[in-house]
Amino acid sequence: MKCPKFDSCNAPICPFDPGRAKRTYLKGEPVCVYMLEYVKPGGVEKIQGTIGGRGASAIGRATQGVEKRWKPLFRRLCIASQTPSRLGGAP
Fold it and tell me: Does any domain span residue 22?
């Protein structure tokens, strides 16, 4: 429950879930908004400004290795990396 979006998020892979490695991700399921933002240019800085440095670090750790464990999620992150940010503000 460390995530500010916990009550409204249905993503099966949560960066704040210590058991996320045991979870499955199926094509078409929701994706954590912070993971989607992390992969965009300037995403790390926007996340730091939104939920702080510790939160951004947790998102970064969760994003590492996604391509090996959850290929459909990795594809979603690749697509997201090419789209504009959904978080407001700079950078």
Answer: no
